[in-house]
Amino acid sequence: DDVLARQGNSQAQNIIGVFLDRGQHGLAKNPKLAAHYFHAASRSEPLAAYNLGLLYLLGRGVERNENAAMAYMHQAVAKERIPQAYVRIGLNHYHRKEIAEARRWFRQAAQDNDPIGAYYVGRMLVEDKRDYKEAMTWLDKAAGRRNADAARLIAYLYGNGLGIDKHLELAAGWTLIHMVLTQKGQALNLPRISLFGLAEERMQK
């Protein structure tokens, strides 16, 4: 890959950039040099444009510049459907309170089965108090791909009977799923957990 990268192969340049950014495959971690490779590849390789945008967004290897980050994200999605880029653009609009635009970009990601995009589509529907049933559909898709935030929000919907019948056992169950997804391998001590004031018999259910 390094030989191809030096010869100007944009896909190889992007791969080398990823290895440098992460410190993988025998390459020392060097986000600054990674940015150089991403930049070289960005004109013709959409993933490189996305990766460079991410470095600018995080201020890793380059000076943080949100405008530059979004420019590269838009450049990437103009050539290829990259769900992660849709999510980043959506989050940018969401934080700016540009709700309609945020919703549009999140839906683009969700339609490509991106769990974060699906979570935010569901979350925004819940925040709008518009269509809890549709929100549940998107949140279920996100949770099915191990998105812990979606599991927590599903528990909230069941616990409050929003768009569905109130069901404390399911609310507790989804809370446990959220806990499992956020434990990062640590074992849960389930007998000591008491959720939603449920008695032992209902918790076992």
> What is the CA-based Rg, rounded?
21 Å
Please count the helical segments. 12
Strand content: under 5%
Q: Portion of residues in helices?
A: 55-70%
C-alpha termini separation: 54 Å
Mean pLDDT: 89
Q: Give the SSE order as H and E letters.
A: HHHHHHHHHHHH
The shape, in one word, is elongated
Uncertain segments are none
Please summarize the sheet with the most strands. none
Structural class: mainly alpha
The number of distinct β-strands equals: 0
Textual characterization of the structure:
The protein has 205 residues and is mainly α. 70% of the residues lie in helices and 0% in strands. The protein has helices at residues 2-6, 10-22, 31-41, 46-58, 66-79, 83-95, 99-111, 115-128, 132-144, 148-160, 168-183, 200-204. 39% of the residues are buried. The mean pLDDT is 89.
What keywords describe this structure?
mainly alpha; 0% strand; 205 residues; 70% helix; elongated
Write a concise synopsis of the structure shown.
The chain is 70% helix and 0% strand.
Would you spell out the secondary-structure blueprint of this structure?
Blueprint: H1 2-6, H2 10-22, H3 31-41, H4 46-58, H5 66-79, H6 83-95, H7 99-111, H8 115-128, H9 132-144, H10 148-160, H11 168-183, H12 200-204
Helix pairs in contact: 2-3, 3-4, 4-5, 5-6, 6-7, 7-8, 8-9, 9-10, 10-11
